Amino acid sequence: MGHYVVLSRLTSDGRKTLKSNPQRLKEVNNEIEAMGAKVVVQYALLGKYDFLNILEAPDEATVAKVLVELGSRGTLSTATMQAIPIDEFLASL
């Protein structure tokens, strides 16, 4: 399983949804799991991005599917990076 760092920003619609239904965050995490990925950890951020999520997924295609689905709703935009465990990174050098 690979790990992926997802930074997200809410749109104005996303902020409205979150304010009226804060539990929506947890519902989205369940939807992500139904699409084949898992939210390992999630943080609310102050600054340029609103949230940092670490996802675990079998491959990049699964992450792409999740992010296209979430992005198509118009409630957030994302920046995603694949994370390589340090031991794997060092072994590749």
Please tell me about this protein's structure.
The chain has helices at residues 12-20, 24-34, 60-71, 86-92; strands spanning 2-10, 38-44, 51-57, 76-83. With 93 residues, the chain is α+β, with helices and mostly antiparallel strands. The protein has a single domain (2-92), classed as Lrp/AsnC effector binding domain/regulation of amino acid metabolism (RAM) domain (Alpha-Beta Plaits, 2-Layer Sandwich). Strands 2-3-1-4 form a 4-stranded antiparallel beta sheet. A hairpin with a 6-residue loop joins β2 and β3. The protein is globular and about 50 Å long. 14% of the residues are buried. The model has no long low-confidence stretch (mean pLDDT 96).
